[in-house]
Amino acid sequence: MKKHLSQTIFLAIVACLLWSSAFVGVKIGLKYQTPLQFAGIRFIISGLMLIPFVNNFARFRKEVIENFWYVCLIAFLQVILQYSLFYIGVSMVPASIAAMIVGSSPLFIAFTSHFFNTGDRMDWFKTGSFLLGIIGVAVITLGRDRLPSGAEIALTGVILLLLNNVVSGVTSVVVARKQQTISPMVLTSASLFLGGIFLFVVSIPIEGLRYSVFPAEYFVALGWLSFLSAAAFTIWNTLLRRPKVKVSELSIWKFLIPVAGAILSWLILPDESPDLVSVSGMIIIASSLLILNLPNLRRKITFRKAGN
């Protein structure tokens, strides 16, 4: 049991560290391509990347056909809706700020799980962390001295990223409640591919078809983003389906995303740099997520004392 828990924590951390690097890659890609079109190409490649790792293609096809409408639902929630909100939102705000807002998603996931999972209810710790997290988001978005040109555009980006968090919470609950009739890798591959096709097709009438000779950094960003989506979503969907894993408690490890994502943005992107407000908001959000996990820490301490 302890080994199983340690493995779950390790894999959750790996997935979150992969996701934390997405913000820089998206910012680089959006310099050369429109949001929906770039997202569509990314997820098409992500879905195709996983197919060689499926041992039995006939089983892959069978599982997709038997669970076709469920795959379409996950493609719509996890790829089409969530990442439309994410890509458009992140194009309107600095990458480090986007990293920290999206990093508050565990609070939204915990709140959503309270209403849909009877065994994962909100308590005082979860409620307090949720409210503290909202304060952290407010500090980041409303307390900054410098916003992107046009405060209205910046506020629109913030709202879209918050809606992305709500959709993320709903998707996590839907995946966790699904019976084991489709493997996580098959679900991830098929949903990413279908979602990517839809985003790419829709982007043509909305954004136009953009193609040109892109520099090497575009392809590096696209390749990395495609890989991390395939790997991180497979890991996360697998963990959500594990017995006795609570959605809210698993999501606590996403506190690594805003921290690592912001640091990467500050290190790699020339126009991104740390400031007092951003760091303060990061600390508040990280604190709220740590509060969410306090009951688990207390149980572990009590268990160790009892063992001695």
Percent helix range: over 70%
First-residue to last-residue Cα separation: 19 Å
Helix/sheet category: mainly alpha
- Please state the CA-atom Rg, rounded to the nearest Å: 19 Å
Global mean pLDDT: 80
Strand content: under 5%
* Backbone shape: globular
Number of spatially distinct domains: 1
Number of strands: 0
The helix count comes to 15
Q: Give start-end ranges of low-pLDDT stretches.
A: none
Describe the main β-sheet briefly: none
Order of helices and strands: HHHHHHHHHHHHHHH
What does this structure look like?
- With 308 residues, the chain is an all-alpha fold.
- The chain has one domain.
- It has 15 helices and no strands.
- The chain has helices at 2-20, 22-29, 35-50, 57-66, 68-90, 95-102, 105-116, 124-142, 151-177, 184-207, 216-240, 247-251, 256-268, 276-292, 294-307.
- Helix 1 (2-20) runs antiparallel to helix 11 (216-240), helix 3 (35-50) packs across helix 5 and helix 5 packs antiparallel against helix 9.
- It starts with a helix and ends with a helix.
Give a quick set of tags describing it:
single chain; 308 residues; globular; mainly alpha
Structure in a nutshell:
The protein is built from 15 helices and no strands.
Which secondary structure elements does this structure contain, and how are they paired or packed?
Elements: H1 2-20, H2 22-29, H3 35-50, H4 57-66, H5 68-90, H6 95-102, H7 105-116, H8 124-142, H9 151-177, H10 184-207, H11 216-240, H12 247-251, H13 256-268, H14 276-292, H15 294-307
Helix pairs in contact: 1-11, 1-13, 2-11, 3-5, 3-10, 3-11, 5-9, 5-10, 6-13, 7-8, 7-9, 8-14, 10-11
